[in-house]
Amino acid sequence: MSELDWDLIVKVHMKGTFSVTRAAWNIMREKNYGRIINTGSSSGLFGSFGQVNYAAAKMAMHGFTQSLAKEGAKRNIKVNTIVPIAGTRMTETVMPKELIQALKPDYVAPLVAYLSHDECPESGQLYEVGAGFIAKLRWERTKGHQFRPADLTTESIKSNWSKIVDFTDADHPASADELLTKVMGKLQEAEEEKPQAAAASSLKSDAIFGMMSTYLSQGNGKAQVSKVAAVFGFDIILKKGGKVEGSFTIDLKNGQGNCVRGKPEKADA
């Protein structure tokens, strides 16, 4: 594949989607109303041999959809992605006429009409549609396995691989925040399983505040920074009335926020 092959496909599918949306977005913001339906592809969801450029652009489109759904929520702008299977001028060169007839675009249009309706509650979602069939897709995540940092090695990953990939009792994540909550909970469980003497040698809060620091450093807390606009100080004790074992500061007043070890110069809470 040449760079031109890559650039042209990305420009048509991803840049094209961006350009059309950008032209309408400010109007929708001013009106406090908007409906956007982006057209993805099964190539993006599942991959397609010989179409790396097309598949990448189509999957990127749904990330675009999910982010816009969050940005448009407070202004009643809803954004969804459809993944249609339909007989078109492109697919008629590789599909039998009977199949093209069974997959008429007419069978996709009603879903688009509903997603465009002012009473449709959905936003940031993904749908497969074609030949009268409509289904909603979502992510699925295994229960996974939480390693203690000291125990995390290539060998320990190999020995726990069956747990990492086991979809029994899987959940269905809907936001990046859920992973942070899940990991923090797992870290606490892992620490509580240690013998008490070992637990006293290090604070479980170190790992928890470390996760918060990573979360903020990646820019994931920007929305909360502007809403909260406060500095929080935490003193950690092992038992009520005990000595302070460690202190942490979470600053949600500047930039994207940060979390560091140590007392704040001035805390709001």
Structural class: alpha/beta
CATH architecture grouping of the largest domain:
3-Layer(aba) Sandwich
CATH superfamily of the largest domain: NAD(P)-binding Rossmann-like Domain
Globular, elongated, flat, extended or rod-shaped: what is the shape? Answer: globular
Number of discrete helical segments: 11
Strand order of the largest sheet: 1-2-3-4
Count structural domains: 2
The parts where pLDDT drops under 50 for at least 5 residues are 196-201
Task: Summarize the biggest pleated sheet.
Answer: 4 strands, mixed
Written as H for each helix and E for each strand, in order along the chain, the element string is: HEHHEHHEEHHHHHHEEE
> What is the CA–CA distance across the termini?
57 Å
User: Mean of residue pLDDT?
Assistant: 89
Q: What is the CATH T-level topology of the largest domain?
A: Rossmann fold
Measured by DSSP, the beta-strand proportion falls in 15-25%
Secondary structure: helix percent: 40-55%
